[in-house]
Design goal:
With 547 residues, the protein is an alpha+beta fold. It folds into 4 domains: 89 residues, no CATH class; 118 residues, Phosphorylase Kinase, domain 1 (2-Layer Sandwich); 194 residues, no CATH class; 62 residues. The protein has 21 helices and 11 strands. Strands 1, 2, 3, 4 and 6 form a 5-stranded antiparallel beta sheet that branches. The chain has a 4-stranded mixed beta sheet with strand order 5-10-9-7. Strands 8-11 form a two-stranded antiparallel ribbon. Strand 3 and strand 4 form a beta hairpin. Helix 12 packs antiparallel against helix 17, helix 15 packs antiparallel against helix 16 and helix 20 packs antiparallel against helix 21. The longest helix has 55 residues. The protein is elongated. The termini are far apart.
C-alpha cells in the first residue's frame, strides 16, 4: 500500500513537472538518473506557471496535501512570492461522504439507539464538507436547550489512516530534501513537516477544538467585536462536536455586505482590533482566520460584529514573547532599528554572539525602502515576514508561536484590505499597542498585579507571625553557624601560615647545612645547623597533623 501511494505521489509530481522547480545542479546524479528512468511520466503541464503546477498537484493528491499547501502558503520566508500567492488559492472543499454514515458515527459516539433520541430534524445532506470533517444541521431534542438549532461536525471515517500514511511519506521526502538540497538547512523541510504533523493531528481532535471554542467564547463574552457560537459539551466527543448554528454573511461576500449597508471601514478596523485583543489581552488567538471561517452578523450593520467558527488551530504567547513582540512593533512604528535588533537578542530569538550593529544594518536595509511608501500602501504582514527573513540570516531559529502569529496577521490584513482597501493597519494598530504597553509598564500594571496577588497575600496573612518567628530563629542559628565556621577558617589559616613558615625555614636550613658540610666548615657550626633543620621540619609536620 505504501509503495503504491509513493508511486502515485511520484507520478503526480512528475506529471506536473515539480522536479523542474529544483535546479539541476542541486540534484545528485542518482536522482537525475532516477528521473530519466521514469521516461513514461513526462511533464504534461509545461504551459502553466510553476506555482499553478504545484497547486494543481497538491489538489490532485488529496486533503492531506491540500492542507500542507495551505500551511506552506503562510511561510513566505521559505517560498518565492508568486508560489506562496498561488498556494493561498488552495481550497479544501471536497466531496462529502454519505450522510447515513455520518449519522451512524454520531449515534456510536454518543451511545444513541437512534439519532432522534438526541436531535430533531437531522439533515442527512451535509451543510458543508472539508478535507478533515463535514457538518450537518439538526435541532436539539432534550435538556435546557431543547429546540436550539445546532450544527454537528463529524470527523471523516478512516481519515486518520490516510493522514498517518501520507505523513510518513512526507517525512521520508523531507529527509531526502534535507540531505540533498544545498539550501536544506535554511528551508528545514523536516522541521516544516513536523510542525504540520502537530497542526494536523490537533485538528483531528474535536474535543480540543471544543475547548478552544469555549475559551474564545469566554474571552469575548458580551463583546461587540466578535461572537463565538456556544458549544454543547454534553454532546461533543473527540470525533464529534455540537455547537450553536449561526446565521451570518461570509466575510468574502463583499457584495452581500454592501447590500445590507455594513460600515466597511469600521468592519475592517474591528478585524484588526479583534486580532490584537486576542494576542495582547488574552494571549490566545484564533490562528486559522481565513475567509471560510469568518462571517459577519446580519444584525446592526452600522455596528458590525464578526462571527467565528473552526477553532482547531489556536496560538498562544507567553508573557515575555508578548511584551517583546509589542515592543518590536512599536520600535518599527518609530523606525528604531537598533531597538528592534536589541529586542531580538534580549528575547533569545537571535543568539547573543550576533553582532548587533550588523543586525541593525540588515534590518534598516530591508525596512527603509518600505517606509518611503505611503502608509496605506505598506503591508504590515509583509514587513513582519521581511523581519523574520532577515533575522533567520542571523541564526534566528523558527519560533512556532511566531509562525502562527505571522500567518494570522497575513489573513487579517488581507481581509481588512479586501473589505476596505484604504485600511491603514499601522495607524489602526499603533494606538492599541501604545495603550497596552502603558498598561503593562505603568502604574496600572502595578495596581493590576496587586489585585491579582491580593487573594494569595490574604491567605498567607494569618501565617505571617509564625513565618516571621521561624525566619528570625533560622537567621539566629545561621549567624551562629557562620561565626563558628569563620573562626574555624581563621584557625585553619593561621595553622597553615605557621606550617608554611616552618617548612620554608627548614628548607633554608637544610640548604645551609648542606653548604656548610661541603665547604668543610667547623663541625660544631654544621651540627647546630643540622639540629635546627630537624627541629624546623618537625614543627612543620606537627602543624600539618593539627590541620
Amino acid at each position: 500500500m505504501r509503495t503504491k501511494r509513493l508511486y502515485q505521489i511520484t507520478r503526480t509530481f512528475l506529471h506536473y513537472g515539480l522536479n523542474e522547480l529544483i535546479p539541476a545542479r542541486w540534484m545528485p546524479w542518482s536522482v537525475r538518473l532516477a528521473r530519466y528512468s521514469l521516461f513514461w511520466l513526462p511533464n504534461r503541464h509545461k504551459d502553466k506557471p510553476a506555482g499553478m503546477r504545484l497547486r494543481l498537484a497538491l489538489e490532485s493528491l488529496g486533503p492531506v496535501w491540500v492542507k500542507f499547501g495551505q500551511m506552506l502558503s503562510t511561510r513566505r520566508d521559505l517560498l518565492p512570492p508568486d508560489i506562496a500567492l498561488e498556494l493561498a488559492k488552495l481550497q479544501d472543499k471536497v466531496k462529502p461522504f454519505p450522510g447515513e454514515q455520518a449519522q451512524q458515527l454520531i449515534e456510536k459516539a454518543l451511545g444513541l439507539r437512534s439519532i432522534n433520541d438526541a436531535f430533531i430534524d437531522f439533515s442527512v445532506t451535509p451543510l458543508a464538507s472539508a478535507s478533515i470533517a463535514q457538518v450537518h444541521t439538526a435541532t436539539l431534542r432534550n435538556g435546557d436547550d431543547t429546540g436550539a438549532d445546532v450544527v454537528i461536525k463529524v470527523i471523516r471515517p478512516d481519515i486518520r489512516g490516510v493522514i498517518a500514511a501520507d505523513l510518513r511519506l512526507m517525512e521520508t521526502l523531507a529527509g531526502v530534501l534535507a540531505k540533498h538540497l544545498p539550501d536544506g538547512r535554511r528551508l528545514k523541510p523536516k522541521e516544516v513537516v513536523k510542525e504540520y504533523r502537530k497542526t494536523l493531528l490537533d485538528e483531528l481532535d474535536l474535543a480540543r477544538e471544543a475547548a478552544n471554542a469555549i475559551q474564545l467564547r469566554r474571552n469575548f463574552e458580551d463583546s461587540k467585536l466578535l461572537y463565538i457560537p456556544k458549544v454543547y459539551s454534553d454532546f461533543s466527543r473527540p470525533n464529534i462536536m455540537v455547537m450553536e448554528r449561526i446565521d451570518g454573511i461570509p466575510i468574502s461576500d463583499v457584495d452581500a455586505l454592501l447590500a445590507i449597508g455594513v460600515d466597511m471601514k469600521k468592519l475592517a478596523e474591528r478585524g484588526v482590533e479583534v486580532f490584537f485583543t486576542q494576542v495582547f489581552r488574552d494571549s490566545f488567538f484564533h490562528a486559522d482566520m481565513h475567509p471560510g471561517n469568518i462571517f459577519v452578523s446580519r444584525e446592526n450593520p452600522q455596528d458590525p460584529q464578526y462571527l467565528g467558527i473552526d477553532f482547531g488551530i489556536v496560538g498562544t504567547l507567553n508573557r515575555e514573547d508578548k511584551r517583546y513582540l509589542a515592543e518590536n512593533f512599536l520600535a518599527f512604528f518609530n523606525r528604531d532599528y537598533r531597538k528592534v535588533a536589541e529586542l531580538h537578542v534580549d528575547s533569545g530569538w537571535v543568539p547573543a554572539h550576533i553582532n548587533v550593529e550588523d543586525f541593525e544594518s540588515a534590518i534598516r536595509t530591508v525596512c527603509e525602502p518600505i517606509f518611503n511608501k505611503p502608509l496605506a500602501e505598506i503591508s504590515f504582514g509583509h514587513v513582519l515576514v521581511n523581519l523574520f527573513n532577515t533575522a533567520r540570516r542571523f541564526e534566528m531559529e523558527v519560533q512556532p508561536q511566531l509562525v502562527l502569529l505571522q500567518k494570522t496577521l497575513l489573513y487579517v490584513e488581507g481581509l481588512g484590505r479586501t473589505l476596505y482597501p484604504q485600511l491603514d493597519l499601522w495607524q489602526t494598530a499603533k494606538p492599541f499597542l501604545e495603550r497596552w504597553m502603558k498598561e503593562q509598564l505603568g502604574w496600572r500594571a502595578v495596581l493590576r498585579s496587586v489585585k491579582e496577588q491580593a487573594p494569595y497575600w490574604a491567605e498567607k496573612m494569618p501565617e505571617m507571625p509564625n513565618l516571621l518567628h521561624e525566619y528570625l530563629s533560622t537567621q539566629k542559628h545561621q549567624i551562629e553557624h557562620q561565626q563558628a565556621a569563620t573562626q574555624a577558617l581563621l584557625r585553619s589559616q593561621r595553622q597553615f601560615a605557621w606550617r608554611l613558615w616552618w617548612g620554608m625555614t627548614g628548607a633554608a636550613l637544610l640548604v645551609s647545612t648542606t653548604l656548610l658540610w661541603t665547604s668543610n666548615q667547623p663541625l660544631w657550626l654544621t651540627s647546630v645547623s643540622g639540629v635546627l633543620t630537624v627541629l624546623s621540619i618537625a614543627m612543620s609536620w606537627r602543624k600539618a597533623s593539627h590541620n
